[in-house]
Amino acid sequence: MGNKTSGLLALLGLGALAYWKYKKSTPEQQQAVKDKINNAKDNINKWGNDLKDKANEVVSQAQNKMDEAKTKVEDTASNI
C-alpha cells in the first residue's frame, strides 16, 4: 500500500509541477504544448480506428469461413 501511495503522490507532484510550468510559460510555449497534446490525441485516435478496422476484418473473415463450412456441411447432409 505504501508504494501505491508514494507513486500517487509522486504523480500528483509531477502534475502540479507541469501545471505550474505551463501557467508560467509564454503563450507560444503554451500553444506548442497544446499542439503536442492534440497531435498525440490524433495519433491515438488513428491507432484505435486502425485497430478497430483490423478487428472487424478478422470478424468478417471468420464469419465467411463459418458460412463456407456451414454450406459444406449442408451440401454433404443433402447428399446422404
TrEMBL record:
<keyword id="KW-0175">Coiled coil</keyword>
<protein>
    <recommendedName>
        <fullName>YtxH-like protein</fullName>
    </recommendedName>
</protein>
<feature type="coiled-coil region">
    <location>
        <begin position="37"/>
        <end position="79"/>
    </location>
</feature>
